[in-house]
């Protein structure tokens, strides 16, 4: 297993993995226009290329042999409103379903923490996660993340409640 920074050449695979994981986690009742619009606008190859090039972001990929199995995106300039001392947001954390419970996510999360050194020298990050995504919430709790509060994710006209979690040197 290799964890490294993403390159532009990874963007197509990142998009495919993002769509697969996002649909598995969030399209429990099927796919509608709101979901389709979201995944094609936010998880497309070009959008991921922009994120890879963004100096304020770190995109990490996990490959097993020659296959992408997970990735994460850190926004190094995203201060948490509920905990202003935390300046790094874990905006994306996707592990292909058949690779869960194999330590891949744990190793990727540890690397995210390592790369999230804040201006105050502490390694901490925050994230928003769907309250309905029980496997992901359980994973975050196992990583020692704590609840800070709640916010909402808007998908078209629908609002979905998120937990705000934080982890690392708090």
TrEMBL record:
Pfam families documented for this protein: Acetyltransf_1 (PF00583)
InterPro entries per UniProt: Acyl_CoA_acyltransferase, GNAT_dom
Span of domain N-acetyltransferase: 1-170
GO molecular function, one term: acyltransferase activity, transferring groups other than amino-acyl groups
Classification via PROSITE patterns: GNAT
SUPFAM superfamilies in alphabetical order: Acyl-CoA N-acyltransferases (Nat) (SSF55729)
This protein's name: N-acetyltransferase domain-containing protein
